[in-house]
Design goal:
With about 130 residues, the chain is α+β, with helices and mostly antiparallel strands. The chain has one domain: Gcn5-related N-acetyltransferase (GNAT) (Aminopeptidase), CATH 3.40.630.30. About 30% of the residues lie in helices and about 35% in strands. The chain contains four helices and six strands. It has a six-stranded mixed sheet, with helices on one face. A hairpin with a 2-residue loop joins β2 and β3. The radius of gyration is 14 Å and the shape is globular. The two termini are about 30 Å apart. InterPro entries: Acyl_CoA_acyltransferase, GNAT_dom, YpeA/RimI_acetyltransf. Keywords: Acyltransferase, Transferase. This is G10406 protein.
Length: about 130
């Protein structure tokens, strides 16, 4: 999982990824083929909201529906746990992620200017989980 996160320039340390497994609020789904991890998603179930924390797919397995499948499964689990909305943030300019989340029914609800260490803006997105999907 750490290798995949580094391929995508995700700013999570190995320790942060490992800590997710110990959090009671964390939901982690992993896509595997053979002995190879193809992708993973991590979400938090908090106070009736699902926060999509991280979604990553190995470069050589992208554009094969893995990210979509992981996200859809996470949203279904989140809804089943009683969450009524799902939130996420992504880096402005990450067009691939914007398309993925847009197709999944997320819409932009705000921006955080100069949110990331390098000065990039974060785009905040939300999906209503009470609507049939």
């Amino acid at each position: 999982m750490y290798r995949i996160s580094q391929e995508g320039n995700i700013e999570w340390s190995l320790g942060q990824l490992q800590a997710e497994f110990d959090l009671e609020l964390s939901i982690i789904l992993v896509s595997v083929s053979g002995a190879q991890v193809d992708g993973f998603v991590c979400g938090w179930h908090v106070s009736g909201e699902l926060q999509v924390m991280l979604l990553a797919v190995s470069r050589n397995r992208q554009r094969q529906g893995i990210g979509t499948a992981l996200l859809e499964k996470l949203l279904c689990i989140g809804k089943g746990l009683g969450n009524t909305s799902a939130y996420l943030e992504l880096r402005e300019g990450n067009e691939t992620a914007m398309r993925l989340y847009g197709r999944a029914g997320f819409s932009e609800v705000g921006r955080r200017r100069r949110y990331y260490e390098n000065g990039d803006t974060a785009i905040l997105m939300c999906k209503d989980l009470t609507i049939q999907f």
